[in-house]
# Entry
Amino acid sequence: MTIRIAIFGAGAIGCWVGGRLATGGTEVTLIGRARVLDELVGGLRTTDIDGGEAMVEVGALSPVRTATEPEAAVGADLVLVTVKSAQTADAGEALARVLPDGAAVVSLQNGVRNADALRATLPGRRVLAAMVPFNVVRRGPGAYHRATSGPLRIDDDPAAAPLLEACRAAALPIEPRRDMAAVQWAKLVLNLNNAINALSGLPLAEELARRPFRRCLAAAQREALGLLARAQLPVAELTKIRPHWMPALLVLPDFVMKLLRKRVFAIDPEARSSMWDDLEAGRPTEIDQLQGEIVALARRIGGAAPINGALLELVRAAEAGGRRDFSGEELAAALGLP
# Structure
């Protein structure tokens, strides 16, 4: 029996995941903006950091179909939501008008609150949390490249079965987890680099190769991990390095980090953070769902988050046309680091 999956809010992540699932025989419907979907008329090409490459046809009689309206999600075995965090409530309301009771919906987004936001707007449906660890780069019209590595994670729930089967058929690694809240916090801690990368103006690999930028990331992560520990919120291990070891390792000399990075995770030279992409396109960023979440946590428990608070304000200034070309030393000074 063919699996049918709809992807609501198909951008870079949605198109790459959809194209990859289609290679395993899944019927995929990409629902999104016409400006994105119109580029797929010649097909959808997905490439991978490990050298994999695939091309699937797009059209009414093809493995991948496109639509701009939420009604196209009706009849899917599962709906993946891949919109930006600020659009989650609107996405849930749109899907609530068309999805029947019992429909399975998966939040495949950054942040720690999106699954709950969807549950609030989709009563009677089964909403699962999931996590994408990798970065996707648009290489051209209809061409999307996975530029970092790692398996998908999803709530260990019977409703996840269609996605698990579709991923297995497409040889796309996915891991059911019973601790998705801890997984999401761990991803958020890693994603604190999104702001630093966006403010550097550099590709991820080049930014992370420079110790002054890593000092900024180490300070942001140390602050976040301290607040999470005070709030008794667990943080999962997503890499070979335990989260609480990461800040100390980040400040090691550049040559040590170069060796370590090769062993722990791969980064394509093209990769940049999604926040850099948003600033480049003039879109609102997800800074409120990343650094903003740490600042909000500090307020709730009576703590302080000066490092993440400063990054929050710098990105907001960048959204308004401010600087996006800090050197590592300049950014460290702006954060008040010695």
About this structure: The chain has a mean pLDDT of 96. The two ends are 61 Å apart (CA to CA).
